[in-house]
Structures are given as structure tokens and as C-alpha cells.
Amino acid sequence: MPAPVPGRRRGPQPRAKIDDPKKSMKTFKRLLGLILKRYKVHMIFVLLCIIISVLASVQGTLFIQTLFDDYISPMVEQVAAGQSADFSPLLFAIGRVAVFYLIGAAATYTQSRIMIYVTQGTMRDLRNDIFRHMESLPIKYFDTHAHGDIMSVYTNDVDTMRQMISQSMTQVFNSAITIVAVLVSMFSLSVPLTLLSLGMVAVMMFVSKTLAGKSGKYFVAQQTDLGKENGYIEEMMNGQKVVKVFNHEKKSVEEFNELNEKLFQSSYNANMFANIIMPVNGQLGNLSYVICAIAGSLLAITCGGIPVLSLSLGSLVSFLTFNKSFTMPINQVSQQFNSIVMALAGAERIFDLLDEKSEEDNGYVTLVNAEYRDGKLTEAESRTGLWAWKHVHQATGEVEYKELRGDLVMDDVDFGYTDDKMVLHNVDIYARPGQKIAFVGSTGAGKTTITNLINRFYDIQDGKIRYDGINVNKIKKADLRRSLGIVLQETNLFSDTIMENIRYGRLDATDEEVIAAAKLANADSFIRQLPDGYNTVIKADGGNLSQGQRQMLAIARAAVADPPALILDEATSSIDTRTEKMVQESMDKLMKGRTTFVIAHRLSTVKNSDCIIVLEHGRIIERGTHDQLLEQKGKYYQLYTGKAS
Amino acid sequence: MIKTLAVHIKGFVKESVATPLFMILEVLMEMLIPLLMKSMIDNGIENPSGADMGHVLFMGGLMVLCALLALLGGAMGGVFGAKASAGFARNLRFAMFENIQTFSFANIDKFSTAGLVTRMTTDVTNLQNAYQMILRICFRAPISLIVAMTITLMINARLASIYLIAVAFLSVVLFFLIRKTHKYFTQVFEKYDELNASVQENVSSIRVVKAFVRENHEISKFERATLNLYILFLKAEKMMVSVSPLMMITIYASIIGISWFGANMIVGGELSKGELTSMLTYCMNILMNLMMIAFIFVMLTMSFASGRRVAQVLNEKATIANPENPDCDVPNGSIDFENVVFSYSEKSERPVLNNINLHIKSGETIGIIGGTGSSKTSLVNLIGRLYDVNEGCVKVGGKDVRGYDLEVLRDKVSVVLQKNVLFSGTILDNLRWGNENATEEECIRACKLACADDFIQDFPEGYHTKIEQGGTNVSGGQKQRICIARALLKKPLILILDDSTSAVDTATDAKIRRAFAEEIPDTTKLIISQRVSSVENADRIVVMDNGEINAVGTHDELMESCAIYREIYIAQTVGNGDFDKKGEM
After folding, report:
1. What's the first-to-final CA gap in chain B, in angstroms?
2. What is the DSSP letter of B404?
3. I need a labelling partner for B527 at 20 to 30 A (CA). Which of A139, A275, A638, B97 fits?
4. Any CB–CB contact under 8 A between A4 and chain B?
5. Residue A105 and residue B252: Cβ atoms within 8 Å?
6. Cβ of residue B437 closer than 8 Å to a chain A Cβ
7. Which numeric CATH code is attached to A408-641?
């Protein structure tokens, strides 16, 4: 059991704030960088396609404006003059427009197609990056972060990226280009009216910013409240049976109601402000239209002939059309604001995880297959059953092989999960190859902690741990752990077949080897009784197996790995006595010839141990064999006999 | 399903009705504005007799008025829509939580924790969004579409038929596209769940992953999963993206068609210029609304799955409920099993408990021992009516448990579950689950009985030490002792310890049992254990085997007569038992 870790966060972590624009900007840049790194060429094409499709649609608008003046009116005049109307210019123009339209549609399609690859590719890369990084994080990270929080990065946070990349980003591009294109056309028609429109746009931007800021704030609050409620539900659902046993239903409904009410308020507010943005902006757009129409008419009537100010009625009509297509994209962008805010908050949490420091590994001593050739230990190409530490001396480049024997020494080790609170003090342990070392002591004395140190799940603050005389800090962590088999109290099986779960111990084990390991752990008989035998798929955390059966599988998993040293956290209490006896035999077989550290509960394990270490409050208070310790009449004697000394 | 969900609009009916009404106001005003614009241009600015400033101002004024009304409609629709949908979500979450609280153990076994959490969060959020969309857009888009179509038909039916063709074409294409993509997206979401499950597994099993140095193995497994998801997503999205160019082509084709035929009609004198302009204005409107309807359709079908999952929880009926005239008086702590047959599911062939007859006197200490799967836990779970028997009956204090008020019964029968949990809060908070009004002294006394006082006092903050979610900051043995103390605070008539001292060292275990015998002699105590040492001093020991009672008797009697018991005893004492098995000598 991990000792209390101060500062461990409770429940879901408060959601990132958005009121730090600098950080948001940085996050955005980093995200953009991430996308561009792999999809630079894609993005250039996307940009090109957007420009083409915007130009095609502007071109279409222009055509409609000239439809009357340039094509229909002449024809009407021709008819009025008694001639037959000449449709060929119109036909030609329509043909030209159709071509442009087709190009525009093709560009849109290409753009969307490319964006799928960019979006889904980025999401996949992000997921892989997060997972890869997560696997590299030290155990401490998992011990100090709520698992729900870590999960939420994969589910909630990566998902927000999808909308942001696929929709918001292209929408913003599209709108920006449309705005520029339309703005140029507007300026060419009338400078004063354009300025007037720009003024209105400024108002719209201001209003959107205010409203979006408000709704953004509430969206963040909504996420926080949702997180809290999520945490509460999770806790209560996990303990639902306890709730029932203690008649605690009413109380938990009350507590839930409080959280639920809060979530309702923040959700209501967030959606309310988000909902208002669109109608407000839409109507401001209409207002802009009216103002321009009135001002334009005034200009047309009163300022004829004055340069810059003068305006033909035809141009005014065109201008008004542009005015409409000018305010529309701004409206669309403001709608994307919320998804951008949420996505940035999500991205921030993703980057937080990615910025967590990986487990450090400065080891350079590796574990290799070995054999004795002419009495000399050398590296072997395939599995020989004999292992050696390969030590390349950094100064000379000289290679030295040392047989893996399982000699483990702890020398004056101090350790604490945090620097300010030591849980182990001056621990000295000597384990000769093949010896069995048993740890006994009251719960919380530090037994599990010691086993956490041998395979370097945690690093010690002071002292030294040596493996076959090599400081474990010099051994590559992967090789160190490979040389140590482990059976934990919590069995942690994976949702896969039983065969694969056992094979987890050694991936290249054949089916026969897996079955042999299962036999060793006495798991073979119950496995064969299952409907699908070794191909039975274990459901999430082994729900369809009993606790005892799961433990046997964990033992088989360690057996197939065939490690020279073992760490056992004996958890026999939930295996019934008959099964336990069988497991015991197989464990003894497994332990034979291997250095074993065992957190012992069973008398036989303790009795047969070469050395029993009695721990209390993180200190070794007694050590010796069973008989020696009984003679001492100390804590061990007391634990063994139940008598207070 | 819809009926189950719709009930929970209660309290927000006004808002639910007002939202579409306001949205209709908005859409009508918005339809009016282009007409006013047209009049402003045709009769004001492009007035054949020179720009008519008065008309421009008048129309401008009208437009501002309409814009204000549209703003009112849109904003109020937004506000009410937000409130109605957030309220709907609140009601759903509350109703689910409340219903779950009535669940019996059998109900709870049916749902996984993770499943319930997703239903109450993600699924409800989906429904909230869907409901908001129904209120705000479901009325708005079709009405807008119908009005626009009507206007164009009124202007020129022949020309408007182009729109009819366009709408029909898009509808058909969208229908097939949606059906196809829906299939893909369902698969995508399934893959999604799998992916998340594998992450979850990795997070909780990280020690195993690291101990076996399987990081790369897990990474490649995960990357295969993300690749699969990626491929499926690409398929689904490729379908989806063909929508927007199709839409563009339809709009463009309509514009070109209207322009060409319109021009012909104008030349033929059948159509005015203003009418053609109006036709073109409504083009975007009609097709956009069609898109909107298609979009809503997709969203709604997606939220259907969520709706089903939520309704499932809401419709789940508790399998155990209070009787009509509950008995609130438990006279004593005697327990009787009479011809009890029990199984968890009616389908299973062999009952979990078969033909159980057992009579326990008030105040007795009973040990229960037996192999894994011998149904020890199932036996004791029937006493507090955590499950109901299939046949026979279980009596507490001489009366059938099914006649008692559940709360009263469970207050008198205190179970320390095998899989026990502590909740986030201080140790005191957790203890007071047993008795809300317990004083600190009472809590300390209970902890002393359960041998928990010592280590609690050792914590820097003592009884005010905060327990993390799931009790991860106390060791297994400490957790078990706090749980025992919590159960003691109920001052029960019957105390059941279901393998509750497995992580406690034997010396402490013995001390706890000694304290029980001395301090609460009148309480009936049932102790399930794998250790002979935990039960050998009990008044009687029940040996369970394969769902049946194999033997009942004292330690000495059983050593004589019961082969199974003898086997267990020998196994545990002759060099094979628990460390310090002689705990009580």
C-alpha cells in the first residue's frame, strides 16, 4: 500500500482557466506548431483551396449584380426595339460562371478532404503521443493523480480538438479571406460607406467579445462543476453497496442535489450567453445594412460629383449586397469562439500531461543472454537460461560481463514519497543469490515500500541499492525490471484472453510454455473448466473470475517470465485453504533457486525464509531466522505468539 | 424511451413552449427583412423618379423595428432554450441518481460504475444539447423553409419549381448519406469505447506494465487501436465531407438556373426584375434550412443511443422495496434460515445456496469457513436483505426479513463488506456514516474496539485526517479496521464481518475478536474468514461447501467429524498456515 502522499489532489482537477490570454496564445501557437510540423504541405493546399472557393463565390455575387445591367437590360431593350433578343452574351457569361462555380465546389471538396486527414491524423498523433508519454511517466505520477483526471485527457480533451481543427480553424481562415476579399470590393465602391460598415463591425466584435467572454467563463465553470459532479458520482457508484448497507441513500441524494444545482446554474448561464451571441450579431448586421442604406442614399442624392463621396445608385445596391456578405463571416467566427475556448483549455491539459517529466533512466548496464564458452562468460545470441549484466565501462569502452545471480544489497537506505517525510530509515538488507527474504510487520510499517524501491518504481533519497554488486542506478530500468518477477496484491489483469494474459510475462512464450506456467500455478484445471478454456476473454479487471483465480493467473504470469529474482506481495487471504496449499507448492517451486523478497503472511513462508526482517515505522527492528527471532522474544515473538511482551 | 425522458421536462414546460414561439418570431421577422430591403431598393433607391429618401427612411425604420423584434425573439429563445435544456439535464441527472439510490444489490450488479458515470454525464449532456436543438431549431428551420418556399411559389411558380427540384435532390442524397455515415459513426463510437477502456486499464495497471517492462508492447497495442479508429473515422468523415460541395453545387446550379430562366422570362415579359432578385435572395435561405434540418436529423439520431442508455437506468425497477406495512421493531439478534434456496440469476442452473437450514441464537458468535465460491458471502448477504431468497425464508428476531422496514433492518444488521470502501472526507466523517450523531468519544470508543485508535492517533491530524477518494492513503489493514469501527457505530444487533480482517495481522485480529467478546457480548456476531484462527474460538462454526452447509459445530466437534474442516485446519497449522496462527494462545 502506498503510504499517504501529501498534496495528492482530490477528485477531478480544476479545469484550466482561460483568463490568461498569454498562456492561451502560447497554447494555440504550440498546437498550431504541432499541426504544421506534420501537415505543412496539407495546410498550404487547404489555404489555397479556401482562397479559390472564396474567390469563386465572390465572383458569383459579382455576376448576379451585373446580371441586370449587363445582360438582361440590353436584351429587354433589344426586344423593345423590335429585334429578337441576343442570348449569346448571357449564355457565355453563365457558362463562365458555371466553370468558376465548379472550380469553387471542387476546391471546397478538396479542402475538406485534406482537412479530414489533417484532423484525424493530428488526433491520432496526439493520442499516440499522450499514451507514449504516459507510459514513460514514473509510478509517482499515477500515485498522485486521480485516474479519472488522466482518463479525461483522452476522452474530453482530445475530442475538443476535433471540432476546433476541422471546423473552427477552416471557418476562421475562410472568414478571414472572405472578409479581405469583400473589404477590397467595398473600398472600391465607396470609401465612406466602407468606413461606416467597419465601425459597425467594431461594435459587433466588441459585443461578441463581451458575450463570448462571459459565456466562456461560464463554460469553464460548467466543466469544473461537471468534473466535481463526475467525481461525486464515481465515488458514490463505487461505494453504492456501502451506501445501501448504511442507509445513506437520502444523504447522498441531498449532497448530489447540491452539486447538480450548481451545474444547472453554470450550464444555463454558459448556454444562455452563447445562444444570445448569434441573434445579437445577426441583428447588428441588419442594423448595419439599414444605416448604410440610409447614408448611401443621402450620399447618392446630395454628394453627386464630389470625388470619394459620390456614389451611383447601382453601386449602392452592390455595396449593400457586400455589406451583407461582410457581416456574415464575422457572425460565423463569433459562433466558433466557444469551441475554440474549450479546445484551448483542453489543449492546455494535454500539454500539461505531455510536459510531465518522464521517468529518468541513466542506466547503461544491460541484461543479455549469456553462455560460458571456454570457461569464459560471453554474450549469447538466443535464450540460454543464463543471464549476464553487460557493463560497458564509460571511460575505456571495455566490456565486462557479470553473471546475473540475484545478489541484492540495500545499504543504509532512506526513502520518503516526498522529501519532507521519510517513511524508511537506515534500511540495510543483504540477500544472497537464491535466498528468501521475508518482510513482516504491522500494516503500514513500510513492507510494500521496500519492494517499490528494488525495481526502482521510486528512487531512494539516500543510501545505495546494489544488484550483483552493481548500483541499481547504473542498470537500465527496463533490464532491471526484466530480471525481477513480481506478483502484486492487486492482480491487474488485462481484457484479453487468459492465454495472452499469462503470456504477458514473456511475449515470446509458446502456448505450451504458457500452459506449463499455468500448471505450475495450479491454474490449469480451472482454466480448462471455463467454456472457452485458455481463449476465455477476461472482462475488465477480471470480473468474471474469482479473486483467487485471478491471483493464480498473476502467479502464472510471473512464472512464465522465469525471472532470476522475485518480489511477492503475498495476498493469500482470499484464496481458500485448499487452493492456497496448491499455490503454495507451486510458489515454492517457483522460488527455488531464485532470490525472493516476500511480504509474508503465511507461516510456512516466514519459517522457511533465510532471513526474516521485522519492520516497524519504516525501520528494521529485528532480523534473523525464525528460530533466532523467537529466541530474542522481541516484536517477532509477539507477532508470532500474539502475546504482548 | 421518449415518454420516459419527456416526463423530466417538468418544471421547465413554460420555457420549453416559449422557446419555439420566440424562435418563430425571430424567423418570421428575418423573412420579412429581405422583403423590406427589396422595397427599399426598388421603390426607394432605384425609384425611377430619383431616389426617394422618405421611402428609404420609412423602410429603414421598419427594418430596424423588425430587427429589434427578431433580436427579442432570438435572444429570448436563446435564454429560455438554455434554461429549459439545462433544467431538463438537471432533472434527468437527479432522477437517475435518485433511482440508483433505490437499487438493490442485484440492480447494482447489473450496471458497471463506469457505465453509470458515463450515462449521468456524457449521455445526459448529449441529451441536453439535443433538446436545446429541438427547441431552438426544430421549429425554426422547417418554418423558415416553408415560408420561403411559399413566397417563391407566390412570386413565380414556374421558376420556383427549380427549388423544388433542388430540395428533392438534396433530400434524397442527404438521406442516403446520413444513413451510411450513421452506420460508420456507430462503429466509430464503439471503437472509441474500446480505446478508452484500454487506456483505463493501463492507468490502473501501470505497476504491472512497468514491472514487466511492457511499455512498448502496450504502446504498439494502443497504436493499433488508434490506427483502427483513424481508418474508421476517415471512412465516416469522407462521406460527411461530400455534403458541403454537393450543397454548393446545388446552390450554384439553382442560381444559374434561376438566372437563365429568369432572364428568359424577363425578356418574355413574364417576370419583373425585382421578382428575380427576390427569387435569388431566397435561394440561400431555402437550401441552408434544408441543410439545417438534415443536420438536426443526424444529431438527433446520434443522441438516440444516449437516450436509450439514460432511459435504461430510469426504467430500472428496484428488485427489493419496502413492504407495504413495514415492521419497524427488530426484537433481538437471532437469525433463522429455513429451507433457503438462492441464486443471483433465474437462468443459472445450479442455485448459489441450496437447502440452507441454520438457526442462530441472539448473542451467539458464529464462524463461517469454506473454500472460494462456497457461497459464504451470499449466505450472509441474505440477512440484511441485500438480496432476496428464491425459496424458503430468512428470519431475523423470529420474523421474516421481507416484513421489516429496510432502513430499520439494515440499521440492526451491520455488514462489513468484503469489498469495502471509504469515502473522501475525514476519518470522523467516514465513521459517522455508521451514526450521524455519534460524538467524537463514541467514535474513538468504536475505533478502540476495532484496534484502529492507535494508528489513527499516530496520524498528524488524528481523527481529522482526510481520506482520499477510495481510501488510497491508508493501508488495506487500516482501511478494514476503520470499516469495522464504522459498522460498530451503528450499535447493531447483528454484526457481520465478511473476511474483514484479511489484511490485518493475526495478533491484531485476535485482539479485535477479544474486544468484541468482552465489549459487545449481546450482539450476534458472524465472522467469515479464510483463517481457522479467526473462527476457531467461535461458539459454533459453519463449514460451507459448494453452496450447502457441510457441517456445524464447535472447533473440537468439527475436528472430530468434519473432513473439510480438518483438512483446512491441518493445512493452516502444519507448516502451511498463516504467519502467527496461534494468535490467541
Report:
1. 64
2. B
3. A638
4. yes
5. yes
6. no
7. 3.40.50.300
Cβ contact B375:B353 at 8 Å: yes
From the list A75, A243, A638, the residue facing B507 with the nearest CB is A638
Within 8 A of A86 by CB-CB distance, chain B residues are none
Q: Would A189-359 and A408-641 be classified into the same CATH topology?
A: no
Task: Give Cα separations from A645 to A358, A633, A642, B441, B452 (angstroms).
Answer: 48, 8, 9, 29, 20
Which residue in the block uniquely carries the three cell numbers 466553370? A99
Chain B interface disruption, residue of A297, A569, A597, most B CBs within 10 A: A297
Measure the CA–CA gap between B265 and B284, rounded to whole angstroms: 21
* Residue A279 and residue B78 in contact, taking contact as beta carbons nearer than 8 Å: yes
Residue ranges of the domains in chain A? 189-359, 366-403, 408-641
Question: Per the CB < 8 Å rule, is A271 touching B81?
Answer: yes
DSSP type of residue A540: G
d(CA A436, CA A361): 28
Q: Give the cell for residue A300.
A: 447618392
CB B387 within 8 A of CB B410: no
Q: Contacts of residue A286 in chain B, CB cutoff 8 Å?
A: 33, 63, 66-67, 70
Q: Do A124 and B226 touch (CB under 8 A)?
A: yes
What pTM was computed for the model? 0.75
End-to-end CA distance of chain A: 28
Closest CA to B353 of B403, B395, B400, B390: B390
Q: List the single best residue of A83, A141, A603 to mutate versus B (max B Cβ within 10 A).
A: A603
Q: Is some CB atom of chain A closer than 8 A to the CB atom of B70?
A: yes
Residue bearing cell 493523480: A145
Angle between helices B124-133 and B273-315 (to 10 degrees): 150
Q: In this structure, is the dihedral angle defined by the CA atoms of residues A66, A71, A74 and A79, taken in order, positive or negative?
A: negative
Between CA A572 and CA A29 the distance in angstroms is 54
**Interval B8-65: pLDDT, tens:** 998 899 999 999 999 999 988 888 887 887 787 778 777 777 777 888 888 888 988 9
- Per the CB < 8 A criterion, the answer to whether B89 and A267 are in contact is yes
Q: Which residue segments constitute the domains of chain B, with CATH numbers given?
A: 1-153 (1.20.1560.10), 363-375+407-573 (3.40.50.300)
**pLDDT tens per residue across span A290-321:** 888 888 888 877 776 676 677 777 777 778 87
Q: List the CATH code of the domain at A189-359.
A: 1.20.1560.10
Q: What is the pLDDT of residues B254-283, one digit of tens each?
A: 888 888 898 888 888 888 877 887 788 777
Q: Please, what sign has the CA dihedral across residues B149, B150, B154, B155?
A: negative
Task: Tell me the three state secondary structure of residue B414.
Answer: strand
Shortest Cα–Cα distance, B521 to chain A (Å)? 22
ipTM of the assembly? 0.81
Q: Is A87 on the interface with B (CB under 8 A)?
A: yes
Whether A156 and A224 have beta carbons less than 8 Å apart is answered as: no
Q: Is there a contact between A253 and B101 if contact means CB atoms under 8 Å apart?
A: yes
Place of cell 459565456: A215
Closest CA of chain B from A256, distance in Å: 8
B273: closest CA of chain A, how far (Å): 8
Chain A residue with minimal CA distance to B572?
A577
How far is C-alpha B97 from the chain's CA centre?
A: 8
Q: Is A74 on the interface with B (CB under 8 A)?
A: no
d(Cα B571, Cα A256) in Å, to the nearest integer? 49
